[in-house]
Design goal:
Shape: globular
Structural class: mainly alpha
Oligomer: single chain
Largest sheet: none
Number of domains: 1
Number of strands: 0
Number of helices: 20
Low-confidence stretches: 192-200, 396-400
CATH class: Mainly Alpha
CATH topology: Growth Hormone, Chain: A
Order of helices and strands: HHHHHHHHHHHHHHHHHHHH
Helix content: over 70%
Strand content: under 5%
Length: 400
Amino acid sequence: MESKSLDIRYACIHGFYWMICCAMIGYASVFLLDRGFGNTTIGIVLSISNILAVFGQPAIASYMDKTTKLSLRMLISIILVAIIVLSLILSFISGASIVMVVLTITVFTLMLVLQPFINSLTFAFEKNGIHINFGLARGIGSVAYAVMSLILGNVVAIFSPELLPYFYVGLSLCALLFVYTFYLPGGKDEIVHEEKQEEHDQLSMGQFIKKYKTFMFLLVATVFLFFDHSIINNFFIQVVNHINGNSADMGNAIFLAALLELPTMALFTKLQKKVGCRRMMIISAVFFSVKHVLTYFAVNMMMIYIAQVMQMLAYAVFIPASVYYVRQLVDAHDMNKGQALVTGAMTLASVFASLAGGVLLDALGVSKVLLIGAIISVIGTVFMFFSVEDVDQKEEIAEE
């Protein structure tokens, strides 16, 4: 019964986190265009946010792997409070100003930094013998993203993008509430002191890279795959406008893709046992490229919707597969580093996509940018075939 309660609370944490992500990153272009910024500036804002997150995630993860002073729950709570305070300030600032840019970058960075630590919460609890269904929780997060996208698409179309910072605040407050109640039976926090005090087992980031060399190539494949994924997500309103769609059409497209993620993520554990983690990673890579190629060839919203359906075997497979892949590949005391590096690779892809995407959109137009992204995505799929290890076989040997 206690495990079910934790499952529900963990699903709610993911739900509200991905709603926040939708409101911030999913509607970043909509928000910043309304404030008077151009595509290039929007790309710079998103890229700086992602660059800061790329460095922030592993740095904080390295600290969290060693410290006994701060739990994941406490860390997440502190970051959410900071987002709430800064978003409130952001809601009172209008127009294209330096202050607006700095505040937006800071809020977006804090949100991006959160992701690997929310993912790691479930494994922190498993160290205490409590299994939490990550796939289901992440699937609920996708549905929440879908619902929020649908709501925001219509709210923005009817009212104004100026309402978005208020969504940042309200959603962060809801997330904070569930994080606050997410603790072990008996009211204990999730820190496992015995393991965290084994400092001689802790690897520096450089030592980690040397130990898991093949994993580094997988991170490169991830960057390539997520480059076009990030371009489409970050500049989706421009893609939709290119085929005569509007913000409501964009909301519907995001809703469709995110809604279809739930069944895949909810059933991931069963699928993994039958197919294996390595094959799941490869399947996701192939369908990422299929989705990106279809988006390039789209001439109307129906073709965009068909491309979005591919999400259920692309992103919906990759996210839980990558989390479980890291769990099976790296040692337990390096878990936070491993999860942070995968998230960091996705974030780094968003850096390149945001920086290059904004400039290329202004210089070349939507169609050529989507072609470049699709080609890079296919290269990433090829990389994935050669970089992912058979961790399922390793786990079987370890169990024997």
